[in-house]
Design a protein that fits this description.
- Helix content is about 35%, strand content about 25%.
- α1 runs parallel beside α11, α3 packs parallel to α4 and α14 crosses α15.
- The protein is built from 24 helices and 30 strands.
- The strands form 6 sheets. The protein has a 7-stranded mixed sheet with strand order 24-23-22-25-26-30-27. Strands 6-11-10-7-8-9 form a 6-stranded parallel sheet, sandwiched between helices. A 5-stranded parallel sheet has the order 3-2-1-4-5, sandwiched between helices.
Length: about 650
C-alpha cells in the first residue's frame, strides 16, 4: 500500500485527507495542535499526528517512512513551516506537492499591506478600535505600542496557547474573543458591533477561511479593512482538485466515492434555508441547480452548473471530479421535489456516491404558519406540471394545500372548484411567499376567483363538510345525468365494482361506457390511478363526458371508438370492465391479455346468448367466477308497495 504524508493546516488539508482516505493509500496527517487532531475525526487508513515538528524531525520522518509524496497543505502565511517541509522533502528525496488555497481578494476589499510589521505601522496612524482576526501568533507585535494595544480586540481560537499569549501581552479579558469558526457574515457583523470597531485586520485567507464573509460584514457595518497580502513566493501551487487528481494518478487509488448532498433551499429566500443546508452549499466543490437558484448560492470552490432534469444533474456528477456536490432543489426535498428521481438515477447508473438529503422550509409549513394554523389535517397536492384531482381532494378532506403553476394556475384551480359547486368554501392564496413583496389573500373560492395572482402562488382550501363525502361505491342513479343511453344501475354497479377489486393506483378500461356511471365510480375509487372510458356511440360519449365533469373527476379519459381498435394505443390495464362488446368479445379479451396477462376482467351480460358466450370465454382463465344478480325495486300502488323485478344480470369475473 502506498504511503502519503499530509501537513494539514487548512480546511483544504482536511478535505484532501477526506477525499483520499480509504482508497488504497496509508495516510499520515500532521497537524500542529490537538484541536486540529480532533477536527479530523476518524478516517480509514489514516493516522493523525498532533504537535509542531522542527525541520529535523520532519526530515527524519520522511526518510524513515519513505512516503511516495508529502503534501504541504499548511496555511498560506505559515512561511516557516512551508520552508521546513520543502527543504526536508528535498533532503530526503521525497516528492513535494504544495496545496495552495485560491485567493478571492480584490482591490475594492480594503487597504492591502505586505506584512504584519507594515500593518502595525499603518494602524498607529489611525483612530478607533481594531478587531484582529489574524490569530494569536502575531499578537505581540500589535501590543508593543501601548496606544495601539489599548484599541485592540483579538479574535482567536479557544486554545491554552492562545490565551497564554494574550496574558503575556497583557491583553484584558474583555478584549479577547476566544471562539471557534466558521463565522457567517452575521456573526462577523455582530462582533464588529460588539467591539465598536473602526478597523478590522484580516489576511487573504480565501473562501475556505471565511474571507468573503469578513469583508461583507465590514462593508455592511461601515468598518475599514486592512488586508495582509500573501508572501509573493507562496503564490505557486496546486488547487485542491488538482492535488487530488495528481495523487490519484500517482498512487493508483481506487475510484473516488463522491459526496452528493441534495439541499432543499426553501422558497429561495435566506430565511428558509437551514444552516446545515447553507454549510453544504458553502463547502461544495460543485453546485448544481436551476439558474435562478444558483444566483443566490455561494460556494467556496465556485464551480456551478445549471441543470434541472435528473439525467442532466447526474451527467454533471458523473463527469466532474468533485468530490463534494450540492444539488439545489426549491422548497422541501420531501415534497414534490426532484430529489427522489435524482437518487434513483444515481443508483441506476451505478455512480459511487454517498447521498445525503437535507430538507428546506417548504411553502406548506410556511404558509400554514402565516395563517396561524397547523397542517396535520391538510392534504398536500401539487398542480404544478401535473394533473391532480383537486375537486375530489377538497371534497374528501378538511383542508387541501396545493402548489400552483403556470400563468393561470390560480385562476384554473378556482374555476375548477366553482364548476364543481365548491365556490362557497373558504380559501387562501399565498403569492411569492418569503419574499419582501409576499401577499396573502383570503375569502371564498367565488370571491378569490375575481382576482389576479402571481405565477409563484399556492392555494389552501377548507371544507367543513368533508365528513359527509361518501367513501363507498354505489352512487344513486338519480345523481347521474341521464339520457336515452344504457346505464348500469346502482345495485349492479355496486356488485360489479366489488368484483373488480380496484386498487388506488388501478388503470381501468371501461369498454362500452354508456352513461359513464361505472367509469365515474371507478375513477372515484382508484384515486391515484386512471380510467379510460371507451364508447362508440356519439351521444353516449357526450353523456360520459357530462358525468365526468359533473362529478369533477380528472383521472379519467373518454375515448371515442370501437373496441378492440380503439384500445390498441392505450396503456396496459390492471382492471377492465366490459359493459358491451358489439360482438367482438374474443378479440377484446385477446388484446387485454396481450397488454397484461394478469388483468382482472369483469363483464356483464343481460341476454342469455351473451351470458353463454362469457361462460365459455371464462373457461381458459385460472380463476373465474359467474354470478347472477336479481334485483327487484319497490313501487307504490295506492297504499301498498309492490316489488318490480329488473332483468337479471350475469356478472363474470376472469383473471390469470
Amino acid at each position: 500500500m502506498s504511503k502519503l504524508c499530509i501537513f494539514a493546516g487548512t480546511t483544504e488539508g482536511k478535505q484532501l485527507a477526506e477525499a483520499l482516505a480509504g482508497r488504497g493509500a496509508q495516510l499520515t496527517v500532521c497537524v500542529a495542535t490537538e484541536y486540529g487532531e480532533v477536527s479530523f475525526g476518524k478516517l480509514p487508513d489514516c493516522t493523525v499526528l498532533a504537535g509542531r515538528m522542527p525541520r529535523g524531525d520532519i526530515e527524519a520522518m520522511l526518510t524513515s517512512q519513505r512516503f511516495a509524496a508529502v503534501v504541504d497543505a499548511t496555511h498560506p502565511y505559515a512561511e516557516h513551516i512551508t520552508e521546513s517541509i520543502r527543504s526536508a522533502a528535498e533532503a530526503s528525496g521525497t516528492e513535494y506537492v504544495r496545496l495552495l488555497r485560491e485567493s478571492t481578494a480584490s482591490e475594492a476589499d480594503g487597504i492591502f499591506v505586505a506584512d504584519t510589521e507594515e500593518c502595525v505601522d499603518f494602524l498607529k496612524g489611525t483612530e478607533g478600535n481594531v478587531l484582529l482576526t489574524t490569530g494569536s501568533k502575531t499578537l505581540p507585535q500589535y501590543c508593543e505600542d501601548p496606544s495601539l494595544k489599548a484599541r485592540i480586540y483579538a479574535r482567536l481560537l479557544p486554545l491554552a496557547d492562545s490565551i497564554r499569549i494574550c496574558d503575556e501581552c497583557g491583553l484584558a479579558a474583555d478584549r479577547i474573543l476566544a471562539v471557534r469558526g466558521p463565522f457567517s457574515k452575521e456573526m462577523n457583523a455582530a462582533m464588529l458591533h460588539q467591539t465598536k470597531a473602526s478597523w478590522m485586520v484580516t489576511k487573504d485567507t480565501g473562501s475556505a477561511g471565511g474571507y468573503e464573509e469578513k469583508i461583507a460584514a465590514a462593508k455592511e457595518c461601515g468598518v475599514k479593512t486592512v488586508i495582509i497580502g500573501r508572501p509573493a513566493e507562496k503564490e505557486e501551487g496546486l488547487s485542491l482538485e488538482q492535488t487530488v487528481c495528481t495523487l490519484e494518478s500517482k498512487l493508483g487509488l481506487a475510484a473516488r466515492r463522491k459526496t452528493v448532498t441534495m439541499v432543499g433551499i426553501g422558497m429561495g429566500t435566506e430565511g428558509t434555508l437551514t444552516e446545515e443546508g447553507r454549510r453544504a452549499i458553502e463547502t461544495a466543490d460543485v453546485l448544481i441547480g436551476a439558474a435562478r437558484m444558483l444566483e443566490g448560492a455561494k460556494s467556496a470552490r465556485g464551480r456551478a452548473f445549471s441543470a434541472i432534469a435528473a439525467k442532466d444533474i447526474a451527467d454533471v456528477i458523473e463527469r466532474e471530479n468533485g468530490p463534494f456536490f450540492a444539488v439545489l432543489f426549491s422548497g422541501d426535498t420531501g415534497f414534490y421535489s426532484g430529489a427522489k428521481g435524482l437518487k434513483t438515477e444515481l443508483l441506476q447508473r451505478g455512480i459511487p456516491a454517498d447521498v445525503t438529503i437535507l430538507p428546506g422550509i417548504g411553502s406548506l409549513s410556511y404558509f400554514c404558519a402565516k395563517l396561524g394554523r397547523t397542517w396535520q389535517d391538510v392534504k398536500a397536492i401539487s398542480l404544478h406540471g401535473r394533473e391532480t384531482d383537486l375537486v375530489r381532494c377538497v371534497r374528501e378532506n378538511p383542508a387541501v394545500f396545493s402548489l400552483l403553476g403556470g400563468q393561470s394556475g390560480a385562476a384554473d384551480a378556482l374555476a375548477r372548484l366553482q364548476k364543481a359547486g365548491l365556490g362557497g368554501r373558504n380559501a387562501y392564496i399565498g403569492e411569492k411567499l418569503g419574499y419582501d413583496d409576499e401577499r396573502i389573500s383570503s375569502g371564498t373560492v367565488d370571491e378569490l376567483s375575481a382576482g389576479f395572482y402571481d405565477t409563484l402562488s399556492v392555494l389552501l382550501v377548507e371544507n367543513p363538510d368533508w365528513t359527509s363525502f361518501p367513501v363507498t361505491h354505489g352512487i344513486a342513479d338519480e345523481a347521474f345525468t341521464r339520457a336515452d343511453v344504457p346505464m348500469t344501475k346502482q345495485e349492479i354497479r355496486s356488485v360489479t365494482l366489488s368484483k373488480l377489486q380496484l386498487t388506488k393506483g388501478a388503470v381501468v378500461w371501461d369498454i362500452g361506457s354508456g352513461s359513464g356511471s361505472v367509469s365515474v365510480e371507478c375513477a372515484l375509487q382508484a384515486a391515484c390511478g386512471h380510467v379510460y372510458a371507451i364508447e362508440k356511440e356519439a351521444d353516449a360519449v357526450a353523456l360520459t363526458r357530462a358525468n365526468m365533469e359533473k362529478f369533477g373527476v380528472c383521472n379519467m379519459t373518454v375515448v371515442e371508438g370501437t373496441a378492440p381498435e380503439a384500445l390498441a394505443d392505450l396503456p396496459a390495464p390492471t382492471h377492465a370492465f366490459i359493459g358491451g362488446s358489439t360482438g367482438n368479445l374474443k378479440e377484446i379479451l385477446e388484446l387485454l391479455l396481450a397488454k397484461n396477462p394478469h388483468v382482472r376482467i369483469v363483464a356483464n351480460a343481460v341476454t342469455m346468448e351473451t351470458a353463454a358466450e362469457l361462460s365459455e370465454a371464462a373457461k381458459p382463465f385460472s380463476y373465474s367466477d359467474i354470478c347472477c344478480v336479481n334485483v327487484s325495486r319497490g313501487r307504490k300502488m295506492g297504499r301498498y308497495h309492490l316489488m318490480t323485478a329488473q332483468n337479471p344480470v350475469y356478472i363474470v369475473t376472469m383473471q390469470n
